[in-house]
Specification:
With 263 residues, this protein is α+β, with helices and mostly antiparallel strands. The protein contains seven helices and nine strands; from the N terminus they run H-H-E-H-E-E-E-E-E-E-E-E-H-H-H-H. InterPro entries: NAC-dom, NAC_dom_sf.
Length: 263
């Protein structure tokens, strides 16, 4: 669920718009809804399962979310078909709440790539109190055996406000009020200051670090020390006899050495 919401938000940032053509609605969207097959998680939240003939379009606008940018509302619903009369095709009942939907112009046939009729689109306008409103509807129906159940037919409807509606139109005001009241983005939450954790207690005090040039314990600092003077204190205690013997031999006169050899 969270991944679908994140994907939907990302698609909206990229300029996503759900506005299917009649061919796409009849060959792809409507058959999948009838068969119960899954649709893309980005568009499924904008396809509402509702009885649009139970109330007027202004009430539907207040209850169901419109598509982004276009502002249309798509409904997967069933329309009741009236008994067929002799010499006339069957027609669907269009009563909706206190008014009714009325056909506007001829029905448009939808054909596939081979020219075969696969469905049709009806354009209707809502009428209330004897006057036409600015609420319009496109009804998509497909020629499928699964679409007809008894005396009803499963259809896909697109309800929207007429582009020619005046700014002060009742339908436009209903649409804007519903979107602002129900589907406004949530207010941002106030930031909460994070509490700092206390520093952990120190078990043992660390040993003080000795500076790199500091003298060792028991050794006097010296500005300049030659290599010989540096090594002499270390060599003297190690072999005192050898050093003194060598020094004594070095200082013995040659005559004394000769006399000792004669003896």
């Amino acid at each position: 669920m969270e991944m679908a919401a994140a994907l939907r938000a990302r698609m909206l940032e990229l300029g996503f718009r759900f506005n299917p053509t009649p061919q796409e609605a009849i060959t792809h969207t409507l058959p999948r809804l009838i068969a119960g097959e899954p649709l893309h998680p980005t568009i499924r939240p904008y396809l509402h399962d509702a009885d649009i003939y139970a109330c007027e379009p202004g009430v539907l606008a207040a209850q169901f979310q419109p598509t982004p940018r276009a502002g249309d509302r798509f409904f997967f619903t069933s329309c009741k078909r009236q008994p067929q009369k002799a010499g006339k095709s069957s027609r669907a009942g269009r009563a909706a709440g206190p008014g009714s939907w009325h056909s506007q112009g001829n029905t448009t046939d939808v054909k596939d790539g081979a020219g075969v009729k696969i469905g049709e689109v009806k354009k209707l306008r809502y009428k209330k109190d004897g006057k036409f409103t600015d609420w319009l509807m496109d009804e998509f129906s497909c020629y499928s055996q699964d679409a007809v159940v008894g005396d009803t037919q499963r259809v896909l409807c697109r309800i929207y406000v007429s582009p020619r509606a005046a700014p002060d139109s009742v339908a436009r005001q209903e649409d804007a009020a519903a979107a602002a009241a129900v589907f406004a983005p949530p207010a941002p939450e106030e930031p909460v200051a994070a509490t700092k954790r206390p520093a952990p207690p120190i078990a043992d005090q660390p040993c003080p670090k000795r500076p790199r040039c500091a003298p060792r314990h028991g050794m006097a600092p010296s500005a300049t020390r030659s290599p010989a003077s540096t090594l002499a204190p270390a060599l003297a205690p190690t072999c005192p006899v050898q050093v003194s013997t060598v020094a004594q031999a070095a200082c013995t006169p040659v005559a004394a050495l000769s006399q000792s050899c004669l003896d």
